[in-house]
Specification:
single chain; 871 residues; alpha/beta; 8-stranded mixed sheet; 14% strand; binds 2-acetamido-2-deoxy-beta-D-glucopyranose; ABC_transporter-like_CS; ATP-binding; ATP binding; ABC_transporter-like_ATP-bd; lipid transporter activity
Length: 871
């Protein structure tokens, strides 16, 4: 063993040891890492592939500005010209339009079968008879009300002309002078008015229709030379008085087509309330139907057909009071010019939130299982027992996972940007960085918190992945639905966002929305200034996530200290108040009255055990450092469960062990040896009694004790993927060995347990045989020269040769340290131990050196055999 007179390892030494171990561990895990990183790559590639297909579809001629061949000079050579006049409605959207066409302003006229007629659900008798439906000649109706009926009648009566006045030399003027309407539905834009592209659909609204009031006119389409014949059909316009605006409301409500299953459909052109209008005051409110939607098309709003209904009322007002020559002409409507556009659908922005939620959440089970693995395998406590403090553990584990997550996210964003996903390229990278950074921090803290609950890797993994996919799906199909519903209370959305998965989803959703509109409109995605946008939830989730990160981290640490199923003795829930309590534990206590009282019981014990007890009490009164271990009346009682009585695992153990002594504990299974050791190494809390290791109380100063302690647990606690040498290097570093001393100590240690030759030291521990693992565990417990070593049945499962080997190691090791060793083999105990204790039923039956004990009790062996009675 190397000499190590250094003190306990510093914070940074421990951190360094853990970091190196983790990196080696990660190196071994390279395959899993590649799989992990491939997942986003595959998803991104999939997106790009689908995007490519969509783009190909969108780039088809039927989606691009229409072109045609024009033979200008009749020589059969044609010139290709493109433009809106050669386009279909679908194609027109992408054409460059330098000077948009003028269209006559139209009214929205209900289709003949929906026009208002007399029905039994309305009491009005002034509506036309239903029989007109069969001939398609139903009049179109406006209804009106106001404070002054005669004024209303005159205004409404002035709205429609009595005949169609055609001026073929000026067609636009003609249209402006008449009242035209259409039952078609408008497009998003007014570049092309669908009404002029289907023959059936332009109406001229007149007060009376005659047989010859249907005209055919030739109109230039979109201001070009191409003319189109247009049938303008007459429709009679009715105007009907209603007593109040609430009656109008009622009539409109009852006649609504959508959601009206009983065929009670009564649609009108528009409704007017002239309110308090008079000669000096024109005050009108207009009902219009903005829900006309083309369900087969893109569902545009019909607002473009509204200005004409306003103009009708204003014009009627002017004419009523100022006479017929006064006119307010509404000649045409015209869009603003636009450059050529390409139809683009950014799939990554639409599917992004769902896919990317999966990609990012995927890290959660990875971190979680890795934490739970160390807990399940008791590796955390093993590291702790060899001196790894909570501080370095947390710091290194946290930064380590943060590092891994950051690399993962970096790969993800860089890859997504390189293949050109708009989701990444359009949004400002600094916002993305802040968002991802806060989120992965939150996610890691959350994994730490959740890890405190789980103790099984498989359960943790299953729950983790269910969470990943569940969150994505819930986000995509439920949460997003709420987000898009403007009427959904914002407060509830914030409440939902308290669940980190949803705040992640929200953030990705916002990115995708900005990328999508940015791509569609040819502008930027999200910029910092957009954080102030009313609908942008990015700011609120950044705040939520940041606060949550701190809170979760705090609770994770707290829970780790209090629940601590993997990190040793639980602390009291108020452990952090400890500093305020009086410091009284570090000095040896005076024997209490209670111990005096228990003398009665003591008297009945075996004399050597009593002697030991008295020695302990003596030592407690006169502090000295000659003894490495002092146990005073240590007890462990497990509370009775399901009606069983309490179980006394250890009943009052007193023991004093000087340096340089090896104490052997012999006894049958279940005698309480392991319970005793578990108390001494801080795995379980004693029910009562005291124990001091190197003068430090095991109840309060376990951390100090760990720096000088080595443990070889009954079951080997090893990382499957680390080699023997790496194990020893790690624990050696924890014990503050450095540089040459470290390598030397590791070499010696490997040699001493016979793991040096034949490359065994560099094989992964998972491939070791049982005996090799055992020897490695012993080597671990001895590395770094601990002053106190516990070995729980170190030689079980070893062949005689390795056992001898091990014995010589232990023998050499016990020179300047105290060793407590449990065993079943008297031979081993005799060989190794200076003193022996026989441990039966929770207490020591006798203590002495092997020779004494043999002399006292030797010569007889009890041979117990159980057979059935007839043998
Ligand atoms: C109603 O309007 C008519 C026509 O403008 C007007 O002559 C009459 O005085 C108005 N009635 C009232 C009560 O204002
Ligand atoms: C027809 O329109 C032209 C040009 O605007 C105008 O000069 C002419 O007077 C109009 N004719 C009638 C009958 O309104
Ligand atoms: C809706 O749009 C589609 C395609 O754009 C068209 O074929 C259909 O006639 C329109 N329907 C109405 C009622 O305008
Ligand atoms: C409207 O008011 C007039 C006069 O007050 C009344 O005769 C008529 O019945 C009312 N119409 C309805 C539908 O209530
Ligand atoms: C228009 O009518 C509304 C509703 O009756 C009224 O509140 C408002 O004062 C009127 N405006 C004028 C200018 O009379
Ligand atoms: C308004 O338009 C919708 C079509 O989107 C139609 O179903 C409904 O009947 C119309 N309502 C009225 C009162 O005209």
């Amino acid at each position: 063993m190397a000499d190590s007179s250094q003190g306990p390892a510093s914070f940074w030494t421990q951190a360094n040891a853990l970091l190196r171990k983790n990196l080696t561990f990660q190196k071994r895990n390279i395959k899993a890492n590649i799989r992990l990183i491939l997942f986003p790559f595959v998803l991104c590639l999939l997106l790009v592939l689908i995007q490519g297909l969509i783009n190909r579809e969108l780039d088809k001629p039927s989606n691009r500005c229409g072109c045609t061949c024009i033979d200008n000079n009749g020589d059969g050579q044609c010139e290709r010209v493109c433009g809106i006049q050669y386009s279909t409605l679908d194609q027109a959207n992408s054409c460059p339009i330098t000077s948009p066409p003028e269209w006559p302003p139209l009214l929205q006229i209900p289709a003949p079968q929906y026009r208002a007629v007399r029905t039994d659900f309305l009491s009005y008798t002034d509506l036309p008879n239903e029989s007109c439906k069969s001939t398609g000649s139903c009049p179109a109706t406006i209804i009106f009300t106001g404070n002054n009926q005669s004024l209303g009648e005159s205004l409404a009566g002035n709205m429609f002309t009595s005949s169609f006045t055609l001026n073929s030399s000026n067609i636009m003027y003609t249209f402006a002078n008449n009242v035209l309407g259409s039952e078609t539905q408008t497009e998003y834009t007014n570049f092309l008015d669908p009404a002029f592209f289907s023959n059936r659909s332009v109406y001229n609204v007149q007060t009376q229709c005659t047989l010859n009031s249907t005209f055919s006119v030739s109109i230039p389409i979109a201001g070009s030379a191409v003319e189109q014949d247009l049938d303008v059909r007459c429709v009679q316009g009715l105007h009907l008085w209603r007593n109040s605006s609430s009656e109008i409301n009622d009539e409109l409500y009852k006649g609504f087509r959508k959601g009206n299953s009983e065929g009670k459909i009564n649609e009108i052109i528009a409704a007017y309330d002239f309110l308090n209008s008079n000669r000096n005051n024109f005050n009108v409110s207009i009902w219009y139907n903005s829900t006309y939607k083309n369900d087969t098309g893109n569902g545009p709003l019909a607002l473009m057909r509204i200005p004409r209904s306003v103009n009708l009322a204003s014009n009627a007002f002017l004419q009523s009071f100022l006479g017929a020559p006064t006119q307010m002409l509404f000649e045409f409507v015209k869009e603003m010019p636009k450059p050529e556009t390409q139809l683009r659908l950014d799939l990554s922005s639409l599917l992004g939130p769902l896919f990317f939620t999966w990609v990012i959440l995927q890290l959660f089970p990875v971190v979680l299982t890795s934490l739970v693995y160390e807990k399940q395998q008791n590796l955390r406590i093993m590291m702790k027992m060899h001196g790894l403090g909570d501080g370095p553990y947390w710091m290194i584990s946290y930064t380590y996972f943060l590092f891994i997550s950051s690399i993962y996210m970096l790969c993800f964003v860089v890859f997504g940007s390189v293949i050109g996903l708009k989701f990444f390229t359009l949004n400002e990278y600094s916002i993305q960085f802040v968002f991802y950074f806060i989120y992965i921090n939150l996610q890691i803290s959350l994994a730490f918190l959740v890890a405190a609950i789980f103790s099984n890797v498989k359960t943790a993994a299953v729950i983790g992945y269910i969470m990943v996919f569940g969150t994505g799906l819930l986000g995509g199909f439920l949460f997003q639905f709420f987000l898009q519903d403007a009427s959904f209370p914002r407060g509830w959305i914030i409440v939902m966002e308290l669940y980190p998965g949803f705040s992640l989803y929200r953030g990705l959703y916002e990115f995708s929305q900005y990328a999508f509109t940015g791509n569609f409109m040819g502008t930027d995605g999200m910029r910092w200034k957009n954080l102030n946008d009313g609908k942008n939830g990015m700011r609120e989730i950044l705040i939520i996530m940041f606060v949550e990160w701190l809170v979760v981290l705090f609770f994770a640490y707290y829970l780790d200290q209090v629940v601590a199923s993997g990190s040793g003795v639980r602390r009291s829930p108020l452990f952090f108040l400890k500093k305020f309590q009086k410091k009284s534990m570090s000095s040896f206590r005076k024997p209490s009255l209670q111990t005096q009282g228990s003398k009665v019981f003591v008297e009945m014990e075996k004399s050597d055990v009593v002697q030991e007890r008295e020695k302990v009490e003596q030592l407690l009164l006169e502090p000295s450092t000659s003894h490495a271990i002092i146990c005073d009346n240590l007890k462990k009682v497990y509370p009775g469960m399901d009606g069983n009585p309490e179980k006394f695992a250890v009943r009052g153990m007193s023991l004093a062990l000087p340096h340089g002594e090896c104490f052997g504990m012999l006894g049958p299974n279940g005698a309480g040896k392991t319970s005793f050791i578990n108390m001494m190494i801080g795995l379980v809390k004693p029910t009562s009694g005291m124990a001091y290791v190197q003068g430090l109380d095991i109840q309060t100063h376990m951390d100090g004790i760990y720096a000088n302690m080595g443990v070889c647990p009954q079951h080997d606690l090893l990382w499957e993927t680390l080699t023997g040498r790496e194990h020893l290097l790690f624990y050696g570093r924890l014990k503050n060995l450095k540089g040459v001393a470290l390598t030397q100590a590791v070499e010696e240690s490997l040699k001493s347990v016979n793991l040096f030759h034949g490359g065994v030291a560099d094989k992964q521990a998972g491939k070791y045989s049982g005996g090799m693992k055992r020897r490695l565990s012993v080597a671990i417990s001895l590395i770094g020269d601990p002053k106190v070593v516990y070995m729980d049945e170190p030689s079980t499962g070893l062949d005689p040769a390795s056992r001898n080997n091990l014995w010589s190691v232990v023998k050499r090791a016990k020179q300047n340290r105290a060793i407590i060793l449990t065993t079943h083999s008297m031979e081993e105990a005799e060989h190794l131990c200076d003193r022996l204790g026989i441990f039966v039923d929770g207490s020591l039956q006798c203590i002495g050196n092997p020779k004494e004990l043999k002399a006292r009790y030797g010569g007889t062996y009890v041979f117990t055999m159980t057979t059935s009675s007839n043998h």
